[in-house]
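Re: weekly structure request thread

Next one in the queue (513 aa):
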Amino acid sequence: MAKQEDLFKNVVSHAKEYGFIFQSSEIYDGLSAVYDYAQNGVELKKNIRDYWWKSMVQMHENIVGLDSAIFMHPTTWKASGHVDAFNDPLIDNKDSKKRYRADVLIEDYAEKLNQKAQKEIEKARARFGEAFNEQEFVTTNARVMEYLGKKKEILERMARSLETENLADVKALIEELEIADPETGSKNWTEVRQFNLMFGTKLGASADSAMDLYLRPETAQGIFVNFLNVQKTGRMKIPFGIAQTGKAFRNEIVARQFIFRMREFEQMEMQFFVRPGEEMKYYEYWKNTRLNWHLSLGLGKENYRFHDHEKLAHYANAAADIEFNFPFGFKELEGIHSRTDFDLKAHEQFSGKKMQYFDTELNQNYTPYVVETSVGLDRMFLAVFSNSLKEETLEDGSTRTVLQLPSVLAPTKAAVLPLVKKDGLPEVARQIIEDLKWDFNVAYDEKDAVGRRYRRQDALGTPFCITVDHQTLEDQTVTIRHRDSMQQDRVKIEELRSIINSEVSMRNWLMKM
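Done, posted below.
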């Protein structure tokens, strides 16, 4: 646990030191759980967004994009259920005065049971080697069965209690499990109560006539209210999808863990409209497709897992999360939900406007069902960034900090370094920059010894360093250094574009899906 905490501190520190993420309004002591993406962070974030958009929209003929407004008519949120049901169970510790989400406290307890079971499994794997049968061990080992059985029992009870609004039982469960305040160890808890997460605001020139609005807590509703607009103007046929990226806002009870849980965040969502009765087929399809998208980035298959929801949202008939192994454990990265026809029917009811689709093949009208994929862009940033940050010990005993970002996502694809700041080398380096910048984000760096410049670019995640030296003036060749292997090759200047492109092009990375 201490090692994980140290890793997380390094992630936060590195993000600031190298211009990825700053605390918002830092000169005024900042705002809790609000962050600014700095000069390198904004590039990495944009590249993640583009990688998602390319795979989701450009690579699917039946998926189109949308950019809906943050402000929406307030009845939207009544229809969607957010006004009445967008709550988190809140609990306070009387001694520490700290506030927590009750369900998160219970889930963290259950995850510790799961970790104990996994330790037993790993010990057995080490003991039995290739002869180890994990499935048989899990179903026969008393200790593992006890851990996993208790975890299942706890989560199912919590889900039932939250489903029926039995908040007294949620508190009773916390007390029975003797869950303590993570910071102080106190078990002196208040009652559990519901807390609505939406931010309220007003629209209008005067206080008397202003309309009460909400900052949108999700981007999905902008897609649903535009369903018929997109379908008719785009002549879309079921099944088809509408994709959107954009900001959402939630007044989180416990906003913590850096950019994992923020009050202002960005989502990348796609709503896929299907015939009633076919939703489970597409639910399974999108589960597999989305996992393959994550795996294409090469962050390690062992760092992902599916988690099926015990408690379903009011609109869903199936839901699963793709969880990622963050420095603080496995947590939700992306959700795949079968939303049924709840949203379109609700908006039809509240607006009085028909939200149905005429299927020419079936010769009938119906309300489409929806399968949703929704990934947090900020969480995706944290997953990529934290997994890529490495401390390496080299052959000579020295160490280097390297940010081994997937090269397709790296903020800067190549840094061009003149060996010295004279003899015409900077001019040649500038010419290379002028040529490459049409296709890639490239940087020029002439400060310090070339070895220190390599280390700086390693820490920034730059896949290639191109060094211009005196030989360059003679034969138009340069040294290109690869970030991960530190291998150096002598190549012609005219070959640089194709070498970089082969490593960073979205085509090559998405072909892995």
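The longest strand covers residues 329-340. DSSP finds 18 helices and 23 strands in the chain.
Next request, please.
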